[in-house]
Structures
1.
Amino acid sequence: MITVKDLNQSFGKKIILESINIEINQHEICALVGRNGAGKSTFINSLLGLLPVKQGSITIDNVQVTKKNHDWKKAIAYLPEKFQLYPMLTGLENITFFAEAVEKSVDQERIEKALKSVSLWDDREVQVKKYSKGMLQRLGLAITLYQDSSILILDEPTSGIDPMGRKEILEVLKSLHDKTILLSSHHLDEIRQVCTHVAYLNNGKMEKYTVEEFLQTHNLGGIES
Amino acid sequence: MHYIWKEWKENIRGKGLWLSLSIIVLISISILFRSTALSFDKGFYVLLINLFDTIIYFIPILCLFIGAFSIFQEKEQKTLIMLLTKKDSYASFLVRKSLGLYTVVLVPILAWFFIYLLLIKFNFELDIKAYFIFILAIVTMSLLFLQIGAAIGSFSTSRMQIIGYTIFVWFYFFFLHDFILLSFLPDVTYESVKLFSVGYFLNPLQAVRMFLETGTGVYSLGHMSRLLQAFMWTKPAFFLLGNLLFWFVTSISTAIVFHRKEGFE
């Protein structure tokens, strides 16, 4: 569960986030929506502890995000937008490297399970530079799945991917019933398909809706994508 | 250890490392061919100094580029941010990554210079101690410039910035540092020469060169004037060690304080 209370972030005199209060409950799939430059990245970076929280508080699974205490990191797995991983390594070598970065002894069975869950087991020995964008994105998802964190933060996981690749990724996301997911997205159709809630960021303020409420409130019901 | 393996696999499958190594191989073979006319008993030392004087132009800039681009790629590929959101802090990432880079650069260089020793053996009388000092000089120089490169990669925000900073650092140590010191030279007295020597040996190229030339016996520290004795107030190995420590601490702290993560600004 993610709890944000009175979060303020500003760069110089420019206020990016203003008194953000939001709770993302267990097993919710919440879309983070807002125009370009609305502060989505700032919000995500605050959750990840990459930006210091000067005003307000963020709690991840009841542990406060601070610079000193890193216990909350175990609960979070993050997949950035437009990542490339290590192109000269194979899919298996990539996931193994990130697994070793998290734990001392790597569980090969969990690696196999993670790769199979994103349908990449057969391509595990292929160098990542030969992967399509969709395959790369699925490998990224497998890396986050191996970490076995209860919360996934995904920054535009379908950005720049063809419709088939998008469908595959959305299928994987739909199958993650035991995770809490915060998903930054610009695509209404994938929000409709996958998400239970929407966190809408506008002019520094954030409001949380169910997907239906969000579509009705903003007259987006008839728009396909 | 996993960083070392990752770095090793990434680099041996890429072209950059092999291209860099092939430059060093070509230079050292051409120097060896040029030196075949030298005498069997003394030619070895001349070869080492000639070789050092030539590769000193390449190794610093190659290591600066390898160090800087390697760190920058981690930012560009977003792997850095993925690592930092888990266990790693930037400091621990930098240390592990640096160890990986040292291995990737030093293993092929050491392997080549071992083969090179066998080639030299056919032409000259070997002095293993002198060769060891030569290798130590090359290793120290490589480590130092890799670490400075890693700092450049940490605070740079674009590839153009990396190229600019790298060329500046290379130019500074090759020309500018000595030019600046030359302007102070007329004012150096017996009392201030120690300070001048600290400034002089802060240039890693001068510290490495002095260590090599005195270590191989090419440059003797006997029969010096009082001023020169005061200038060389400690052993060349200590100058080199001090230089190594200074640039390591400076580079690592600069990298930690001024590093920029993708998506952070």
2.
Amino acid sequence: MKVLVPIKRVIDANIKVRVKADESGVELNNVKMAMNPFCEIAVEEAIRLRESGHAEEVIVVTVGPAQSQETLRTALAMGADRAILVEADPAPEPLAVAKLLKAVVEKETPGLVLLGKQAIDGDNNQTGQMLSGLLGWSIGTFASHLEVDDAAVRVTREVDGGLENIELVPPAIVTVDLRLNEPRYASLPNIMKAKKKPLDMLTPETLGVDVSPRLETIRVIDPPARAAGARVTSAQELVDKLRNEAKVI
Amino acid sequence: MSILVIAEHDNTSLRPATLNTVSAAVVLGGEIDLLVAGGDCQGAADEAATVAGVSRVLMADDPALTDGLAENLAPLIESIARDYSHVLAPATTYGKNLLPRVAALLDVQQISDISAIESPDTFVRPIYAGNALATVRSLDAVKLITVRSTAFDAAGQASAAPIEMVSGSQEAGLSKFIGEELTRSERPELTTADIIVSGGRGMQSSENFEMLESLADKLGAAVGASRAAVDAGYVPNDYQVGQTGKVVAPDLYIAVGISGAIQHLAGMKDSKIIVAINKDEEAPIFQVADYGWVADLFEAIPQLEEALDSPSP
Ligand SMILES: Cc1cc2nc3c(=O)[nH]c(=O)nc-3n(C[C@H](O)[C@H](O)[C@H](O)COP(=O)(O)OP(=O)(O)OC[C@H]3O[C@@H](n4cnc5c(N)ncnc54)[C@H](O)[C@@H]3O)c2cc1C
Ligand SMILES: Nc1ncnc2c1ncn2[C@@H]1O[C@H](COP(=O)(O)O)[C@@H](O)[C@H]1O
């Protein structure tokens, strides 16, 4: 079985983003970029499936600008076998990404597609679910545990009330949550090896997908600021303030 | 305009975020139908009929819908959604799992997690863990939207609206519900609680979390946690507050032994009053706290409990 892992290049999770003065978006110039943390977890899980003999090949794919090749190389250095870049700048909306991924799935015929549950730039949490709808495949979202065999994909999902266990008929789509695994770091020799692994280039045109946006961004602004308040030095002072000043208890 | 709201429920009763989603529909204006799709879900449908603002309850009752599996629910919603200008679902794990699949079937770009409505086609949503607010206009014929529950009040009650049956659901045969391990608690639910006491890595163990539970009980509060506390296994996953956990906005949020990473702040910075208790006076959580107390939590929490027992002078 092949495992396909769609990954996204985003602003590094440790960077505090800055909104552009013209309100057109957030500043991306000279900002440290990285693989979306949830995608790292998906790549890690795919590699573990191959290492445990449940998968033969791990293919990573991204839709984005030319620089996204760096992110693909990171995934190859972690241990993915080959990579595909669908070049589109900027990366399109989730629906269009899902359509492009559907076209890639039809070319590659994976048995499992592992995605992050959410990209931490747009916080959309949509792409995997949309891909499953377009393909008519089963879906397990927010996975914190995964078991794969020929007959079924078993997923433990993190839901609002706790955990839920479901079983999927393959081929399946799974979106991964934070506690599924701890992604490995790429070693230096593996980073060198990754430079020689195959990386194919595609475009939305060659895949025959219309990626025109359906949403128009009117403005992007800073959220209302919250100012630091007062310091207290004792429990009694805190309780008095909460009772008499804030009146919340 | 006509709006379809997808109810989240457990077949017997509605989940609270449904009420906030109805309020968002009321802001949009127009006729509101509330869909209760489940198995043996008369109880939930009866409750749905009493939600203020709802014109009609649509009830789809089928064994294939009992467990809320997206593969079985999505085609049903797709088949009725075209009659509406808007389809809304709560931005809970239920709505996040389901609505994008419907959006793909309808060829619509969903708008996730809206926090405000500017006009029938223009919405505000937080991006980058709430570090920016985007205003977007949808060009799609039908708008599919998930609603951030903390941004809209819960709808009240009204006299009963009619319940109509809808059919057309089928077992897709793609997935199977096996079971669940739900966290049982006598305390208020995190997303609807007026007061939340949250603990972080500074708590050091699940035993120590009992201190927070005891404090929470004194305040009638819910208990939450940072990702670090959940990852360390101190508390279950559903306690996590943040960008990728639950978004909360209580009257009072008490953060204990939590540093205040942006991903945590994303889930709680719209709380009315924030209290931070942390031994590191440089901790970023103090930058958003209305009341900051630099203290060792193992001394501070027992003192706080004691102070709550004594009347203010
Ligand atoms: C993709 C992604 C998503 C994430 N999503 C979330 C999310 O949804 N929610 C979330 O919370 N985090 C999330 N995180 C993690 C986040 O970045 C932080 O790592 C996490 O919030 C830190 O938790 P913490 O504050 O408990 O731990 P730490 O940052 O380790 O802070 C512990 C604090 O406790 C204090 N402390 C220690 N001992 C004591 C004591 N005895 N008395 C008083 N104070 C003490 C310390 O001074 C310190 O400030 C996410 C990260 C990523 C990359
Ligand atoms: N441009 C993209 N290219 C490849 N995969 C993507 C892209 N955007 C999103 N994804 C995948 O979909 C997941 C969820 O993203 P989103 O729906 O944008 O929150 C990500 O973690 C990726 O696995």
